[in-house]
């Protein structure tokens, strides 16, 4: 064998051994414990609210009107998006000229 072939074989063997060692090390180490932060709020609502009941906050006319106007804005945006999608579905293909 030529020296180039020997060098290539040696490099391939080293890469295979290094890959096997890396694979073995990755599967032999025990997974560490990771602290997970809770995304839920731990604040309690005062009163006797049980499961399935909502706290009675923000039920004034001003709060309800603000929620209604925000909902109207979102629905208006949805209507615009729907109209754009419908228009794109009805798009006609453009004929191409032969050069």
Walk me through the structure.
The protein is mainly alpha-helical. The protein has a domain of 29 residues. Helix content is 56%, strand content 0%. It contains 2 helices and no strands. The longest helix has 29 residues. The protein is flat, with a radius of gyration of 33 Å. The two termini are 58 Å apart. The relative contact order is 0.04.
Short structural summary:
The chain is mostly helical.
- Which overall shape is indicated by the principal axes computed on the Cα atoms? flat
User: What do the pLDDT scores average to?
Assistant: 78
Strand content: under 5%
Number of helices: 2
Q: What integer value in Å does the Rg equal?
A: 33 Å
Query: How many distinct beta strands?
Result: 0
Helix content: 55-70%
* Element-level helix/strand string: HH
| Main β-sheet description | none
How far apart lie the N and C ends? Answer: 58 Å
Class from secondary-structure proportions: mainly alpha
Unreliable stretches: none
Tags for this entry?
0% strand; 99 residues; 56% helix
Helix and strand layout, with pairings?
Blueprint lengths: L2 H26 L32 H29 L10
């Amino acid at each position: 064998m030529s020296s180039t072939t020997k060098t290539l074989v040696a490099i391939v063997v080293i890469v295979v051994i290094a890959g096997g060692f890396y694979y073995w090390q990755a599967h032999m180490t025990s997974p560490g414990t990771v602290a997970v932060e809770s995304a839920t709020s731990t604040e309690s609502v005062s009163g006797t609210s049980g499961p399935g009941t909502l706290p009675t906050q923000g039920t004034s006319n001003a709060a309800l009107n603000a929620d209604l106007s925000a909902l109207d804005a979102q629905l208006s945006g949805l209507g615009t998006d729907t109209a754009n999608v419908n228009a794109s579905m009805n798009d006609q293909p453009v004929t191409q000229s032969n050069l």
